[in-house]
Amino acid sequence: MKRFKCLALAVGILALTQLVFGCSAIGVQVWERDILSKPEMQPDNRAVDQAIDDHIYFSKEASSGGRSFGGGGCGCN
Amino acid sequence: MRVQLGGNSLLRKNLAAATAILLGSGVSHAAGDYKLDSSLLLYSETDRVQAAEYVLGISHSLPGDRILHGKLTFDALTGPSPNGALPSNRVQTFTRPSGSGSYTVEPGKTPFDDTFHDTRFALDGGYTIPIDHLTSFDFGGHLSGEHDYTSIGASLSLSRDFNRKNTNLALSTAFSHDLVNPEGGAPDALSSMREATGEGEDGEFDGEREGGGSSDSKEVLDVVLGVTQVLDRVTLLRLNYSFNRSSGYLNDPYKIISLVEGRGGTSPGEPVDYLYESRPDSRTKHALYAEARRYLSGHTLRLAYRYFWDNWGIESHTVDFWYRLPLRNGHALQPHVRWYRQSEADFYASYLVDGAPLPEHASADYRLAPFHAITLGLEYQLPLRDEATLRIGGEYYAQTGDISPPSSLGPLSQYELFPKLKAIMVRAGVSYAF
Amino acid sequence: MSHRIYSLVLTATLLLIVLATTGSAFAAPPETLKELSEAVPDSVSLEGQVVYVDFWASWCVPCRSSFPWMKTLYDKYEKQGLEIIAVCVDKDHEAAARFLAENPAPFPVVFDSTGHLAELYELEAMPTSFLYNRSGELVSQHRGFRKEESDDLATGILELLAKEKPQ
Predict the structure, then answer these.
(1) How many of the other CB atoms lie within 10 Å of CB of A36?
(2) Strand pairing category for B315-326 and B50-62
(3) How far apart are CA B122 and CA B146, in angstroms?
């Protein structure tokens, strides 16, 4: 299992560097961002709702984090 | 307009003055300088916890692309919560967390502590400063309090765009120091549940238990490394790795675990004592998160997956999907599905057996048990006017335990060891830019 | 395991800091006024004018807030030889038309839905503006539109208008 986790992590880091350095051809020009500028296409457009969700799930489940900080500041878990 | 060319700086100065007079009113207060986001959630579990949470977020754009942002959270919670003990064929009596008084639970019923009520107040603030047109820093602070818990923290984030702003790399760190001050003091791990001091019996209960410290603390470090990539005009991909390390007091001071009679006893499976839970004093969590958004002729789809693991032996998978279906005049309908499955913590035990050596760590907290959960939701979004939207929605959340029942320990095999949870959530939110 | 995580996070931090300090050079667009003058209506002549070219889109928030500013500028200085060309890069023509109906532009608007001009000008931000003197030479370019920079931007234009008088 530990090996799998290490592997998952390595793949993640590799994908990340690959995206930063290898993807200069991927994407759009600045004048083609009409759809990407829509609120529903912004990854953090629902930050307040997400904060509430994270708080609910943090207090009801054992997992947290991923999308943002792993939780804390709450005595609910 | 004839200007004497007596030097460029003088000319510029004169022109600047002229511009200020002529165009001073030309640039009005731009719409969107302030952004307000508020959300209210009502959470109701069948026969259990009822909660309400309100969050107000505000951000203010300042000259030089700087942003000041803050968030206010208020939540209130009340209702019975499982105390960790198992159902029994007998009437069970438990001491209230404060130590004064007790409550009884009918035979065959999952024991709930109904003294549970709390309000929490939190304040978050931050300031974003651009370094150049591609890079920005954010500094933040956090403060929160409830009657038995206080948290203070700080955060720092760095964000940088690459590849014509098609790639964004962000690194965030946060640190918080939390104080735990449980009702009746923090109990010693695996110590027997204290005796109740009956009301008025001696009237001198001071909230301290023998040997138990009154308060404790914990430190939490968070690191999130994320990359967001624009794949094409309609597709966005985000990958995050998050790391969380907490150390200090990690027990839930109100959770107990049944110590039951073993097979050789007169009534196997029946409780002989209740012990306060014991968790390790440090925990390291990791999560890999992937999210994709795609826009298809007006419709928006979002799919997210998270793989989580920690050094307590918990592993979980979360899949979260929503779909935004546009209706007429900017209205939209958004169905939501979330599926979650977790494995148990290494030290999770629904009960301990009397006479057997006590493990170092044990907890019967249902949140450390193996279970799966599903969330189904539907939201309606409607534009109020130019820069305002209202959203109202409802969600159903249910947890189902994956604990295999103990084969032959008396009455235990006939009971549900995982307290099944069903909840309804109703939410309303407004976003407004002005 | 734990040590490896820490070193990975540390490496990533350092990497990000190094990358953050290597800013990209501002790419100067080629002399493209000629190309642009072919796109504007025949009734508009750029000869001997101070030309302010603004690339905008209806979906871009700072672009929208630059419109009243450009309108004021144009109303005041058109007679002194200022020409403003608003190049609209909206792919959705309806969205652009809706915006223009609400914010009528007294200056010529050029539609560039294919991004042909935007590509020529090597746009790196929205909006971006380019300022030409009366001889048709590119004098400056400006990325974004911020309230606090608009006076400086206007001063630059007025400077050009005052420096050379039309023959």
Answers:
(1) 21
(2) unpaired
(3) 9
In this structure, what are the phi and psi dihedrals at residue C36, rounded to the nearest 5 degrees? -65, -40
For B241-266, the pLDDT digits (tens) are 999 999 999 999 999 999 999 888 88
CB C88 within 8 Å of CB C117: no
Q: Model-level pTM?
A: 0.86
* Identity of residue B54: Y
Q: Are strands C82-88 and C50-56 parallel, antiparallel or unpaired?
A: parallel
Question: What three-state secondary structure class fits B46?
Answer: coil
Host H or E run for residue B143: strand B135-146
Q: Interface of chain C against chain A, CB under 8 Å?
A: 1, 4-5, 8, 12, 19, 55, 57, 59-60, 89-92, 95, 112, 115, 118-119, 123-126
Q: Give first-to-last CA distance, chain B, whole Å.
A: 38
Rounded Cα distance, C96 and C50, in Å = 26
Task: Give, rounded to a whole angstrom, the gap between the first and last alpha carbons of chain A.
Answer: 26
Q: What is the DSSP letter of B368?
A: G
- Distance linking the first and last C-alpha atoms of chain C: 76
Find chain C residues with C-beta within 8 A of A8's C-beta: none
**Mutating which of A31, A33, A42, A45 best tests the C interface, going by the most C Cβ atoms within 10 A?**
A31
CB contacts < 8 A, A to C, total: 40
Spatial contact of B216 and B252, defined as CB atoms under 8 Å apart: no
pLDDT tens profile B89-121: 999 999 988 888 899 999 989 999 987 788 999
Q: Strand pairing of B112-113 and B149-162?
A: unpaired
Residue A69 CA to residue C12 CA, distance in Å, equals: 17
Q: Which residues of C touch A9 (CB under 8 A)?
A: 5, 8
Please, are residues C20 and B137 in contact by the beta-carbon 8 Å criterion? no
Retrieve residue B190's tokens. 């695996």
Please report the DSSP string for B15-27 in residue order.
Answer: HHHHHHHHHTTTS
User: Is the CB of A37 inside 8 Å of chain B's CB atoms?
Assistant: no
Amino acid identity, residue A9? L
B chain contacts of residue C69, beta-carbon cutoff 8 Å: 23, 26-27
